[in-house]
């Protein structure tokens, strides 16, 4: 028996409160981090290793033994070893018979092997009860204690009792087990940590597509059209003017798309007269990525603010202002202030500033560290009421700024409407439908449906 001599202190205050012995195969990063956490939680930990030598990295109160010796000391054995080395377990099959083997392994690629690592482990050691767990938690998070965002541990296995034993350990470590069913779920659990921002895919691809579309749309109207018809070279618009058109357009459309699925869901529920039928898959997925859509929209709005701040120092703007002043001097004519235009300009700026302020507030409240500290009603108030107010302010900001183009036929270059007009379609649709939905007759029915009322309830059997 080999007791290692690390000076790592176990935080368990009272050793008489010791829980059962747990065995961990492998003294690598994860094995050590998990062992350390288990000792802190009152477990007696025995490591099974190829070399039963002391190391200052291994928790002080743990034993390090050979695999066969360690396995005999515990009913639960956590396999903190890569899948490709599982073969070494086959000769230990007799000792491992009837034991609970916890597979914590991950792969490098999604669906890397035909069967999950946990199912493979069950094939290598057929007499053992294999449970999949812990693979979504990193060794670093376990060791540093920064588990706030990842307290949930997915668990699956065919033996209910074995699964229960593992879930008890998970709870004792201060984590939350989530039972995912039989070992068939292991492949999905193993793929989970390999996914790259799954909720961000749709918002990112959508915004890339819309950015490309509106960039070329504005390029055609603002650069190519004047070049062909007026022989003017406005190609420098590509650097600031066009991005400063595309960013607010994207921000407004994406903000509209955050609230559109909510009104579509309300229409579907009103039409069906029940909330107990599933929404179509595409709507479910859309609703799940609303936060990401909103954050991408906020990013576009922030870039728009930055672009707007540099407008006064642009060479083109300074040239236009000075040549306008010079032309007034040459013509000996002073153009008096148009108060209507001044009102319009100040109003659209004020709406934009207020809209952006609320937009930032929405973004901040969507952060887990903030949203965890408000109750459900407060969260709904911010995300729904303030969210719609933000949408109204930003839509009004665009309407006041771009509304003038609706009336001038000259703005329809090549019969194409100005890009600002297109950006108003989604938010205006959302606001109009929402306005209709808050009519008392519809709102009352919708509230009843959301409280469980059904227009045509199924007869009870
Ligand atoms: P690691 O640092 O490479 O440690 C693996 C351990 O496996 C080694 O320290 C060694 O322990 C043992 N080992 C290596 N080759 C072996 C062989 N041929 N036969 C028997 N044992 C062998 O890896 P790790 O990061 O701790 O990861 C271990 C497992 O946890 C992996 O399956 C990984 O997917 C999973 N995991 C890791 C993390 C993480 O954050 N690191 C997170 C989730 C899941 P001994 O020298 O003591 O024998």
From TrEMBL:
Domain Pyrroline-5-carboxylate reductase catalytic N-terminal: 21-107
Highest taxon above the source species: Eukaryota
Cofactor: FAD; heme b
Annotated Ferric oxidoreductase domain residues: 249-391
TM spans (from-to): 204-229, 249-271, 292-313, 347-365, 386-407, 419-442
GO cellular component: endosome membrane; plasma membrane
Protein name per the record: STEA4 Metalloreductase
Organism encoding this protein: Baryphthengus martii
């Amino acid at each position: 028996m080999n007791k290692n001599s690390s000076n790592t202190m176990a935080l368990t205050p009272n050793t008489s409160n010791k829980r059962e012995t747990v065995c961990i195969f492998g003294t690598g990063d994860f094995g050590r981090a998990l062992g350390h956490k288990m000792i802190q939680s009152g477990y007696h930990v025995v490591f099974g290793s190829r070399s039963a030598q002391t190391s200052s990295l291994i928790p002080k109160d743990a034993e390090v033994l050979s695999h066969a010796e360690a396995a005999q000391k515990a009913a639960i054995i956590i396999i903190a070893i890569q899948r490709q080395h599982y073969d070494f377990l086959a000769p230990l099959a007799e000792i491992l018979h009837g034991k609970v083997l916890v597979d914590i392994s991950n792969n490098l690629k999604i669906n890397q092997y035909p069967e999950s690592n946990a199912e493979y482990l069950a094939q290598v050691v057929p007499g053992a009860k294999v449970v999949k767990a812990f693979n979504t938690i990193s060794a670093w998070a376990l060791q540093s204690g920064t588990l706030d965002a990842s307290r949930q541990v997915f668990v699956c296995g065919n033996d209910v009792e074995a699964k229960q034993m593992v879930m008890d350990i998970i709870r004792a470590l201060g984590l939350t087990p989530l039972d995912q069913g039989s070992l068939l779920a292991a492949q999905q659990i193993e793929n989970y940590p390999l996914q790259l921002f799954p909720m961000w895919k749709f918002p990112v691809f959508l915004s890339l597509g819309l950015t490309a579309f509106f960039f070329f749309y504005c390029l055609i109207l603002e650069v190519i059209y004047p070049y062909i018809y007026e022989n003017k070279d406005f190609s420098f618009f590509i650097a600031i003017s066009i991005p400063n058109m595309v960013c607010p357009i994207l921000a407004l459309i994406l903000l509209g798309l955050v609230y559109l699925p909510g009104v579509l869901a309300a229409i579907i529920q009103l039409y069906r007269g029940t909330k107990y039928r599933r929404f179509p898959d595409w709507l479910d997925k859309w609703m799940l990525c609303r936060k990401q859509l909103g954050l991408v929209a906020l990013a576009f709005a922030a870039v728009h603010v930055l672009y707007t701040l540099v407008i006064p120092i642009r060479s083109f703007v300074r040239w236009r202002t000075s040549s306008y002043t010079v032309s007034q001097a040459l013509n000996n004519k002073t153009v008096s202030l148009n108060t209507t235009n001044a009102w319009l300009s100040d109003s659209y700026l004020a709406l934009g500033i207020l809209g952006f302020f609320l937009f930032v507030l929405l973004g901040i409240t969507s952060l887990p560290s903030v949203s965890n500290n408000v109750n459900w009603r407060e969260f709904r108030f911010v995300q729904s009421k303030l969210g719609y107010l933000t949408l109204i302010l930003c839509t009004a900001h665009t309407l006041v700024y771009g509304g003038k183009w609706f009336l001038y036929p000259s703005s329809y270059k090549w019969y194409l409407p100005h890009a600002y007009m297109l950006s108003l379609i989604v938010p205006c649709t959302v606001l109009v439908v929402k306005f209709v939905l808050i009519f008392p007759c519809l709102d009352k029915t919708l509230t009843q449906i959301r409280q469980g009322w059904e227009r045509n309830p199924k007869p009870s059997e």
